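Worked Example 4.2. Read the sequence first, then its structure tokens.
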Amino acid sequence: MCSYNSSQIIKSFLENDFVPEGQPDLSKVEYEIIQCAEKGLSITQSAAYLGRSPNTIAVYRSKIIKKFNCSSINQVCVKLKGKDQDMLR
């Protein structure tokens, strides 16, 4: 799971349409899915929370993973955690 700080950064992205340099361009829905993942929600739980089908969430997660050049959503969270530390210095 991602750190609490990454949740704050993601929230800032959503509120301000801010995408840091070198960061993949993500949609609002993709950021919401990352937030669910960092909270430890499964695909099914994320789908229920966001009012979408589990298949839709799975497709979005796959796209997010590819955009970050990772092999899992947890790796995406780790990458964001690293970005948070750089941004908070």
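Now turn to a second chain, presented in exactly the same format:
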Amino acid sequence: HADTWGNPSDPIEFPAAFGQTMTEKEAYIRELDEKTGASLKLKVLNPVGRVWTMVAGGGASVIYTDTIVDLGFGEELGNYGEYSGNPSREYTEIYAQTIIDLITETPDIAGRSKYLIIGGGIANFTDVKATFTGIVSAIKNSVEKLKKAKVKIYVRRGGPNEKQGLELMKQVGEETGIPIEVYDRYTHMTRVVDLIKQAEEAGGV
């Protein structure tokens, strides 16, 4: 019915899948998702996983997840989710902060590195600079946590204002000392997963 379907003041509540309960963080992101015209999705798969993703676009998130599993990191995959529809800088920062809080909550018991993929295809209309400004703010708010959890960040993105957005990522890595590798549209989208595999084969520390 037009008066209830999509009405932000009286949204339809969809229950969690049978046999599943939402974590506090999942419920929080779902609440944000309902408030914005963009899309914010999060499912926690393994709270102590060492490979986490913050991916722009539902299609890209599927491709990244498949590649992570194909390369042998399925059991280490911490989450599944995506942000899309040109979310605001503020909403992107909150989404990024939530994922950073999750990946840093439990440092690896064996002292190994964790990996955060900030990935996506080549956007048509999502402003890469605006969304990355939000992500950079979350990184700056979490420097000590990220270092304690030994998080390495791999970035691959293309789209409107990508040059400025990617430069922001390079700068925050240089300023904070957090290892951040940045790649543009000319690097294959899932190349960063190969780089994680190489890092693991080199010792993962």
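Notes for the reader: The helical segments are 24-35, 58-70, 89-105, 128-140, 143-148, 162-176, 191-201. The CA atoms of residues 129 and 165 lie 4 Å apart.
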